[in-house]
């Protein structure tokens, strides 16, 4: 895998042509048959044609990296329809972005149109929801407030650019919250919610795909499709796991909203006196083996293993909240871990929150409404804390800064309790590993069938490695859990047997649905459904010359965006929790005070 990584770590290209140049200054070429047009082609749309079809469209400055030619910030469903129709009729590359938080750079491209959804962020709270062929009423400003009815599932309708934290801030006055990522700008109904979507409470409430009640999707023909249990049910199944940007543009969605609960966030840290010692490995083995029983108690959390320490941020919601209960769960585990050779005394801290908003704001940082994604210079720069998306550039919208080299595997109880092979897998990684206990419980028993990887339903932990050098290697975890898969939003972009790894037995059905709704591959992402029907030739997207060979390839086709984001472990792994910094030596020893 290391050699594969080196081959994929392609040097960034510089797009040296100003996109606002007149067409007669560019040497015209003929668009090859079966390929998307580039701005050097004779039949490339003129600047006037762009502006006439998409009022407000702006040229994207290259910023020393490959990028689409133009950005269009949609403010309505009609805007999205116009963008999709323009891209399809003019045979140009189309990419869709809402926040840019995409490790695979699926929301990026080296040419064509970038459809920016970040301005579509209206919210409507619902006391209940019943699917109809007509679809839910569209959300409007300002966001309303409701009083949840006992025993009735509340819901919320959102436009396609709303971030997790913005949405939950709007829901808080109704004493509700919804599922989202562990980073506020990530879009619950964007790529996160269309590929799986894990978060701090997914173990208790289900994955992002399990929250959907309905979607309004602009498909490749430019029409709006209502997708729910009674209308276009095949499309509804596909977008709940098939991945963002593959089947159409989700312009609105209705998802579950949950009653507010108290939450306890429980930090613990334990250091080793040696680097990479056997005692630390034994402590990690022991911790991993205990996680299934902790998970059964209704606890989720994030556990970070390095060559000198282990630290955690455990989440105890609802009936599991309270420092006393958290101490009871962790006392026997931590006391055992500190008995292994070279391990120091453990340290803890407990944080009790009265509701979800307080938990989220303190844990991950409160949102400044004037710094929301999609505003000029706006948004906390995701690149600095949690990934590849960032608001930057004169266009004032989100951009994706490139692919992030990482790797992952979903693990079940039997894998975590296989001590010898678990330790072997850790040593092969040669980098820090996060054990994200975000599955099990409700993830294992969803209310409805979705197209997300079946491995999610068997897993407890999403094991994630981020090492920015060529030594990144999760093959030990592949050997540990060969029958499991990986979460396609946070995985190695050169993973072999990618269809099975990311979608399992759901892939053939997803492929058929993709062909039904997008026969001309207007929407193309990789790794993505039917991605191998296309290939990149000389910087442009084309139909695969040898479809049979492409389909048989063990790896997904490379994207046309060759930007690689060079982040380090400190930026990427375990730094999203703002209250998880190591305490001073000799402080906070033992259990947290009640």
UniProtKB/TrEMBL annotation:
<dbReference type="InterPro" id="IPR016169">
    <property type="entry name" value="FAD-bd_PCMH_sub2"/>
</dbReference>
<dbReference type="InterPro" id="IPR012951">
    <property type="entry name" value="BBE"/>
</dbReference>
<feature type="signal peptide">
    <location>
        <begin position="1"/>
        <end position="20"/>
    </location>
</feature>
<keyword id="KW-0285">Flavoprotein</keyword>
<feature type="domain" description="FAD-binding PCMH-type">
    <location>
        <begin position="64"/>
        <end position="260"/>
    </location>
</feature>
<dbReference type="Pfam" id="PF01565">
    <property type="entry name" value="FAD_binding_4"/>
</dbReference>
<keyword id="KW-0560">Oxidoreductase</keyword>
<keyword id="KW-0732">Signal</keyword>
<protein>
    <recommendedName>
        <fullName>FAD-binding PCMH-type domain-containing protein</fullName>
    </recommendedName>
</protein>
<dbReference type="GO" id="GO:0071949">
    <property type="term" value="F:FAD binding"/>
</dbReference>
<dbReference type="GO" id="GO:0016491">
    <property type="term" value="F:oxidoreductase activity"/>
</dbReference>
<dbReference type="Pfam" id="PF08031">
    <property type="entry name" value="BBE"/>
</dbReference>
<dbReference type="InterPro" id="IPR016166">
    <property type="entry name" value="FAD-bd_PCMH"/>
</dbReference>
<dbReference type="InterPro" id="IPR006093">
    <property type="entry name" value="Oxy_OxRdtase_FAD_BS"/>
</dbReference>
<dbReference type="InterPro" id="IPR036318">
    <property type="entry name" value="FAD-bd_PCMH-like_sf"/>
</dbReference>
<dbReference type="InterPro" id="IPR050416">
    <property type="entry name" value="FAD-linked_Oxidoreductase"/>
</dbReference>
<keyword id="KW-0274">FAD</keyword>
<dbReference type="InterPro" id="IPR006094">
    <property type="entry name" value="Oxid_FAD_bind_N"/>
</dbReference>
<comment type="similarity">
    <text>Belongs to the oxygen-dependent FAD-linked oxidoreductase family.</text>
</comment>
